Amino acid sequence: MLSARSLAVGHGRTALLTDVELDVAPGEIVGLVGPSGSGKTSLLRVLSGLTRPLAGEVLIDGTPPPKRPQGRVAMLFQSARRSCDPRLTLRQSIELCAPKAGVDWDALCARADLQTALLDRHPHQVSDGQLQRAAIARALAGQPGYLLCDEMTAALDPAATAAVVATVRRAAVDGAGVLFVSHDLPLVAAVADRVLDVAESSLRKAHL
Ligand SMILES: Nc1ncnc2c1ncn2[C@@H]1O[C@H](COP(=O)(O)OP(=O)(O)OP(=O)(O)O)[C@@H](O)[C@H]1O
Q: How far, in Å, is the centroid of ligand 1 from the Cα of 199?
């Protein structure tokens, strides 16, 4: 279980969210909605260990994660292009996050719905949807327990969105807990098992 307890999230002295209580269970997809600038990305960054909370704690199965919990909590961003090194092929990017034992490329690409023929291309040689699926493959290669998805379909057309959502659903069926942030409320309602709203300082159940 990925949990936030009495979490305060913000920048400098400015708190965006306070008293956040949150639980994401393995295999569960939790939607997270709220106005632009309310702190959703900032919360995800704290949950992933990229930034520190102003107060409170993040727990995995009841204990604080190690200092670099990225292996257990992977973050997926709106722009896969900005999160991929343009100098590396997709295969090289994925290998950086893979366990030393190596990668079962066929199995990984099947899970991420990524054509193996694309692995030796560079980011500029694939579409946004293909690159987002490569980013998912890179995240899954690290065998994370939790996926934090930040507007990951915002730049995609409906077909690419459906493909990406299917991979996220498969990851949840395989046991990953997912926190899915989007401004697309119908999409969140369709994808998530339950939806939380950051419109108030503490997260509360959203009625979509
Ligand atoms: N590193 C930073 N330093 C200072 N302020 C920041 C930093 N990152 C974000 N902010 C500010 O924190 C607020 C919340 O930003 P955040 O990206 O978390 O919101 P959001 O809910 O994800 O918004 P959106 O839905 O538009 O993506 C914004 O006012 C933003 O300008």
A: 14
Measured at the CA of 192, the angle between CA 196 and CA 166, to 5 degrees, comes to 145
User: What residue ranges in 135-176 does DSSP mark as E strands?
Assistant: 146-150
Pocket of ligand 1 (CB under 6 A): 11, 16, 34, 36-42
The whole-number pLDDT of residue 3 equals 94
CA distance 127 to 18: 39
**pTM of this prediction?**
0.89
Residue nearest to atom 16 of ligand 1 (CA): 39
Give the pLDDT confidence of 54-88 residue by residue, as tens digits: 999 999 988 887 765 555 899 998 888 888 899 99
Instruction: Say what the alpha-carbon torsion angle 194, 198, 201, 203 is, to the nearest 10 degrees.
Output: 10
- Would you place residue 201 in the very low, low, confident or very high pLDDT band (cuts 50, 70, 90)? very low
- Ligand 1 pocket, mutate which of 40, 45, 148, 198 (most atoms under 8 A from CB): 40
Domains of the chain with CATH codes: 2-205 (3.40.50.300)
